[in-house]
Design goal:
The protein contains 19 helices and no strands. By secondary structure, the chain is mainly α.
Length: 499
């Protein structure tokens, strides 16, 4: 036996630092929201509720997102943890609340990845004229599962490859959206539109023009098309200038989304007119397919391709928050440690990434066996989880920085008041969502589960499953649950320590 007692074991691999830059993070944040698909899915129902004031509702929906993005920016400055909400809420409000925030993020990925991939496949097939394949459930679902597996592999192979794929997809997506908006508006002003076109007006930006319950319903739809921009912050440990670049990417992505959504909403409402959109609101994401054929004729594949690339991009980027959150939770012993495994070559969280994809595929296939409407109901349940963890983050920002809020007006407004107001708005929307989802008639399926709407039952079920798992894990590994609440490090806040 050698006399040397030196430990020759290699250190465990970590996420690859400085793998991507600010622009890459910004693009990933944008793609995670799936702009083209989000617009396609929401613009019809929003117009059915508020008519020509749809652009104003999308503008009003942006406000709480910007306020919560501010919270992400300031919390990331003092804690660059890929678990984002999980880590920050744990530090500010304790492990029990932090664990539930992490669970909500992980479950959003599980609920939505299958649907995004399904949309990507469906619109790609439509773009290439393979309409009969869309009607074949086996073929469509097989292609959807294959797409999820391919996008998951891209996530595992490396963050740099993910960024390059996302850069290409966002260019294709934005180019297609701009082409549609330009053609549609040109035909409005040229008077060559085939529908009941109407000239755009600045008064469409008034979000309160419709008023009443219809405004509340439209805001509920509008808020959640912005969801996903925080994927840039989940990559904080892999971004250059990690203390500031991911947070700036999150804030700027919300602003770019605002400009994109409002511009395309103007083009859609102006070209189609509120009557056509209201009549076809039930078509949901296929509204763009209808408008593409009307506005662009033989070039309708351009818009179909935009929605498809949007779904492909978001399939990949939506896996990132769930997998990084699971990694962060496992590192703190809040989940089994094998979720913290990092691939020694690619330096990505391979185990948690494949687990997220596997559970998402199982959920997608299982829910589709019930009905396609049940899949849409599971997406509706997303609003509960999203509002919950966004609101938690806003409150956590003010709590974690509580000793610094009165140091300056900027701190009070952007670190304290703004995030809290954003959290309050989202809490109100959460309450409205629960009330709306309690009525089975408001669900896609239109059936009653335990006397409630399916989306609310799904949301409650996921929450209860999380609570049970949390309690069980508390007794399995109690170390995490002894973590104490803290406050932001003054040296980090004031820049006296390297960020």
């Amino acid at each position: 036996m050698s006399g040397s007692s030196q430990d020759t074991r290699r250190p465990a691999p970590s996420l690859k630092a400085n793998a991507i830059g600010f622009v890459d993070a910004l693009v990933i944040g944008l793609n995670a929201t799936s702009p083209a698909y989000s617009l396609a899915a929401v613009i019809g129902p929003v117009v059915a509720l508020v008519g020509i004031y749809a652009p104003g509702v999308l503008f009003a929906s942006f406000v709480p997102m910007l306020l919560i993005a501010s919270a992400f920016y300031y919390l990331n400055r003092v804690d660059q943890d890929c678990g984002t909400t999980f880590s920050w809420v744990t530090r500010a409000m304790g492990p029990w609340t932090g664990w539930l925030g992490g669970w909500a993020i992980a479950m959003t990925g599980v609920l939505v990845v299958g649907s995004l991939a399904d949309v990507a496949v469906t619109f790609a097939l439509l773009a290439f004229g393979l309409d009969s394949w869309v009607e074949n459930d086996f073929v469509r679902q097989l292609l959807t599962v294959l797409l999820i597996l391919v996008m998951t592999a891209v996530c595992v192979i490396g963050t740099e490859l993910s960024a390059r794929v996302q850069n290409a997809l966002i260019l294709a997506q934005v180019a297609c959206l701009i082409a549609f908006a330009v053609v549609a508006l040109y035909r409005v002003y040229a008077g060559t539109g085939s529908l009941n076109s109407t000239n755009p007006s600045f008064r469409w930006l008034d979000p309160f023009g419709a008023g009443g319950a219809s405004l509340t319903g439209a805001l509920l739809l509008g808020v959640f098309i912005y969801w996903g921009w925080e994927s840039a912050v989940n990559l904080t440990e892999e971004v250059r200038h990690s203390a500031t670049a991911p947070g700036r990417a999150a804030v700027w992505s919300t602003v770019i989304l605002l400009l994109t959504y409002v511009s395309v909403a103007y083009a859609v409402v102006a070209y189609a007119g509120p009557a056509f959109l209201a009549e076809n609101a039930a078509e949901e994401e296929f509204i763009f397919a209808l408008l593409a054929d009307e506005a662009m004729g033989g070039w309708d594949w351009v818009v179909l391709l935009a929605v498809s690339t949007s779904g492909i991009a978001s399939t990949q980027t939506t896996i990132i928050p769930a997998s990084r959150t699971a990694l962060s939770m496992a590192r703190r012993r809040a989940l089994p440690t094998h979720f913290a495994h990092i691939h020694p070559r690619f330096r990505t969280p391979d185990v948690s990434t494949w687990w997220v994809a596997g559970i998402a595929i199982a959920w997608y296939l299982a829910v589709n066996q019930i009905s396609s409407n049940a899949l849409f109901d599971s997406l509706t349940a997303l609003s509960l989880l999203i509002a919950f963890y966004y609101a938690l983050t806003g409150v956590a920002c003010a709590v974690y920085y509580r000793h610094h809020l009165t140091e300056s007006l900027r701190n009070f407004l952007f670190i304290g008041l703004g995030p809290v107001v954003g959290a309050a708005l989202l809490t109100w929307l959460l309450a409205e969502s629960v009330a709306d989802m309690s009525d089975p008639a408001n669900s896609y399926s239109g059936v009653s589960w335990f006397g409630l709407g399916p989306p609310l039952v799904i949301g409650i079920g996921i929450t209860l499953a999380g609570v049970v798992l949390m309690i069980v894990w508390r007794f399995v590994t109690p170390a995490f649950w002894s973590e104490r609440r803290g406050v932001a490090d003054p040296d980090l806040v004031h820049g006296h320590k390297e960020l």
